[in-house]
User: Fold these one by one.
Assistant:
Number 1:
Amino acid sequence: MNARENTSRALDRWKVMDAKTKGKYARLLWLLIGPGVLVMLGENDAPSMLSYSASGSQYGIGVFLPFVVLTFLMAFVVQEITVRLGAVSKAGHAELIYKRFGRFWGNFAMIDLIFTNFLTLITEFVGVVAGASYFHISKFIAIPVAIVIILLAYSFRRYWSWERITMALALFNLVFIPIAVLAHPDWSAVGKSFLTFQPFPAGGLNNNNLVIFLSDIGATITPWMLFFQQGAVTDKGLSKHDIRHGQLDTLLGAILATLAAVACIIATSPLFIHHMNSASFGAAQFAQALQPYIGRTGSTLFALGIMEAGLVAATAISTSSAYAYGEVQRKNHSLNSSFKEAKSFYLTLFAIVMVAGGIVLIPHFPLEWVVLIVNVIAVLTMPPALGFLLLLVNDKEIMGEYRNKAWANTLAISIGVFICIAGILYALTAIFPNFTL
């Protein structure tokens, strides 16, 4: 850790202690929130919002609303663990895996992360292209501008500044709430959907329904979230005394992200009501398809919301990858450091952003297919990540009194089993196309 990092974190810590001493609880919360809100709203990324759009347009509001709420509850259970791990160990997720399980399993976890991260990062730029196309902006303009915006977010050389700016942009995800209102939904039907939960769509869990089902799970629980939030908690300098605020931060993020996700499904439900098949238009055309039902203002906000989702998630995912790389290489990997002090960290950020953006510029790249399938892949690669997470949080040497209680282990294991079963069902429908449940 260099002098700049020490000074920056000491200054942030002094602000926290001053707020605690003076009983300024609102200011204290403001100082300590960030990683949880960012990771949850960041996971409401472009492929996630487009997956929710596909859910709303294909199934309306009666099927997936309560399921989406359930997935965010699962995400909170998982992400809360990363808060405790980061605050207690003062180490990133990749660093802990290498230390506790050795290089073989560490490399396994890194391949899992890099594979899903890179695919997901590509889809974030797909989302930027989708939103920009509504305004008739070429992808050859939209992608370079997006890359510049993302890279500018790292120019402040202060974690706190980067976090505040990125979080302000992430809060724009809530734009889907007024869009849902503009759709003039039947609010009694929305309420009824939560009271009369329909577990499976019409036709059962066939291959098509399972892709949407899994993509909605992958829209809330993915490996990059573990690495990002634990790295951010460490970079922010949270301590054991801040765990409760870190948990509150994560809960707040989960609530905000749930509201935006539910609103997105409601906003796109007119396409189902008016019997429009989403297969008849690409992901880039959701905003145009919705314009007759939510108006020009609503469709414009929808396109901007998809672009915002892609930009925020691309920033968080690239940071997650760079954190993990720096931890494994034991090189400076802090946003409190300058480019000169953490050259490999920033070069990793810049490289993966530019390569992912460049791939989307390839002519005839299958944008819509990648958007849906990447969330499915994220689900299928999540069980190993959950396994490492549970082993670490139950390690007495690392966590001491902050390790998981029995009820927390039961919840986390149940989530892992649920995701594994969903993956097995998807495999069965892929092998046996006529298989339904």
Number 2:
Amino acid sequence: MNRWLALLLDAIAIGLFALFARIAHQSEEMPLTAAGWFNTMLPFLAGVFLAYLVVILPLKARAEFIRPAGLSVWVFAVVIGLVFWGITNGEIPHWSFMVVATTASAILVLGWRALHRVIRK
């Protein structure tokens, strides 16, 4: 699989993760808008890009494989996203938010890779 296609699929996965989060937590103070969705997605997407720059491209890793590419993308996205959230909100994210963000992003980022592997076989 082409690395650009894998990057696009990772971006879509993180975009869906952010969209689901915005839908679940919309309120009068935080309505579901394109700008709000983008602001939620951006820190996690930065983690995806950083994983490609630090791990996938230098190691020439197959981006569609779960190890090391998928795990790297997932960990970088979660860590960068939650650290950025903590910095912008001036507090450590609640443990339940960390669990949900970690789990949901794993399902999406690693899930498309698992599905790709099943289809290839």
Number 3:
Amino acid sequence: MSMGQVREAERPSIPEGTHQLIQDKYLVPTNEIMRLYRKVDEWIEDRSPGGIIFGRQRRGKTQAIKYIEKKLTLRYGDELPIFVIPAKHKFTANEEVFYEWLLLWVGHAFPYAGKKNHKFDRLAKFLLEKGEKSKYKQIVMFMDEAQALLEQHYKWLIDLYNYLNAFQIKLIILLVGQPELKLTKSSFVTQGMNHIVGRFMINEHELFGAKTVTDFQVCLKGYDTIEYPEGSGWSYTRYYYPEAYAEGKRLEHCANDLFEAFALVRQERGFGGKMEVGMQDLTTTIKYALAKYGAESKKKNHWIDLATWVECVKKAGYVDSEVSFNVSKLE
């Protein structure tokens, strides 16, 4: 039996289509996500009332929230209640529905019971209980796709903020969304709505995509280190390219080729300006290189060369993403 066959036999037995990579059940740290994590942690330490986090589409905002929630939980444990309120298809100016949505995602057992005032009372007391049990007397609430919030929603959040503040519990609301969120803040400032800006928008942070080879390298390194099954010793890179991995090859070392691949595709399509690759486009490209060209593929390449990276960039949707963005700038 050859060494290649031995390595193949050692691979974990994972049913087709169930690997974490295929199901997108993984979180890869990036320079941008870590920069945002440090900023959010600073806001929490300063007991700031809130802030806005914004960036273009496909910049990995939702993934960043998940990663930061995990990091904060590891740091603070049960001493800091953290809630993530996901995007809603369409927020309407309906107070009762708004409270139901919040009750549902903070984990209350009865989000739909009672009338409007009962729902607010239940939500406020639920959060109060969580806050009073917290060592830090703080609650962190991320609200995704917050550019969809209407002025009325902010007024209802103020009611919730004021209720908890009366009991000396600090509610920190972090509004995450697209660049329109920055425009909303500017509009509120112009209109003199300091009661909203001062509570929820006093801080701000813009999330960017990968701009440098180092940014690419940090992201790629995650696939060299994250293991599945956990503790098995089989990183994503090793699982999909076992023989190349045994020879010492790592995705981290592909940073220059991957950067060049994106640059070549941009040049071919005539995209102007400086390159900034959204995290969704970057991770989808890497996923494509592993799943479509690695050990699970019929093509089964030994390793990933520049031409393969270029093909992965094209097939992963980056071109469509950039075309869409450039069209939106012209509208």
Number 4:
Amino acid sequence: MAKRDHFGSKIGFVLAAAGSAIGLGAIWKFPYMAGTNGGSVFVLLFILSTLLIGLPILLAEFIIGRKGQADAVTGFKNLSPGKPWFLIGWSGFFFSMIILSFYSVVGGWILSYLVRAITFSMNGTSETFYEDLFNNVISNPWEVIIGQGAFIFLTIWIVSGGIKGGIEKASKWMMPLLLIFFLVLAVRSLTLEGAMEGVKFLFVPDWSYFTWETALLALGQAFFTLSVGVSGMITYASYLPKETRLGNSALSVSFLNIGISIMAGLVIFPAVFALGFSPDAGPGLAFIILPAVFEQIIFGQFFLILFFVLLLFATLTSSISMLEIVVSIGIKSKYERRKKAAWVYGFLIFLIGIPSALSFGMLSETHILGMSIFDFADFFTSSFGLPLGALFISLFAGYVLTKSELQNDLKVSQFLLNTWRFIVRFAAPIAIIIVFIQGVMKLFI
């Protein structure tokens, strides 16, 4: 029988975990959320939410994962035999499949744009060229399904290689490249004439945007970008050796996540302001506004290719963590079945994602609660799946794990331990419930 795989190094784990967190949430969703919610105020609230609420829950997932030393379902059974806490793992299994099913659709869009950028077929010929291009891409049934399939194939290929030979190896070269690409793009964006207006938008607060809704959106964004709530970090931490310092790892992942999100803003907003575009373009910012921005600068084609390579890397590092959650639960302790399981579950997720892929074309008239299939899948997971998963993970860490167990795992001062326990027992659950209620209210308002 094959042995359970492990990460080969702490840096490999941190990069894989950071890669899981740093995906479309940081590079695609964060900029347009900041752009439509006042820039700097949203950024400040996002940072506070990440450090005060997201980080403690991330650490809770790390603790549960390493203590369980198994997939999320088996790990909860090991830690709390005979109790229904293992349902948290099954929840992660289900919601990971749904998230990856529509996430891979966006991955397919990125591949389509990357191919167009490499073949120099993205030169705007009219004012509406990039908007028309985006609408054409997402509504073309063959293009979106082929793109989605290609993206899923890349994800399966990496996950089927195992932890050390697949996920850790891929993360070790994709994450440093992602950081280098970001620096190159940020420097180019910041050297444009008028770029400082974009910097001010990110860092000089306009307190008129400081509202209850903005605070809740920032908290929801913190959960989304840290990948907490679907047991992804529980799964990754289960491959850790006992001596790894979990607190340092959680801090590293959180600060990398914040740093990349802000760097995404520094890539996008200086260029957007310098060239006279609007920062509140919404989800189309990366696919409609940015290509138009790059077209107007020297070596724009090169930077456009670089941007979509970067976006592809970030999306892949998140997608492999979601497929790993599903595969690890699916194979239980039968590790020799990893490759087969990766292909079977990956293909199943591809099939589940086809309606989302077609929801802007052939199925554009099909709606669930007034939303397209794609938008409903996004809303359902981000407003219900992630908050509920994060809530029960927080409660499990705060009320089921004993204080002495936690002290042995964290090896921190009593003050830090008590502060962390207060957050996961009271502050985090209250914040999560508020976000959950906000999601429910959106259905009826």
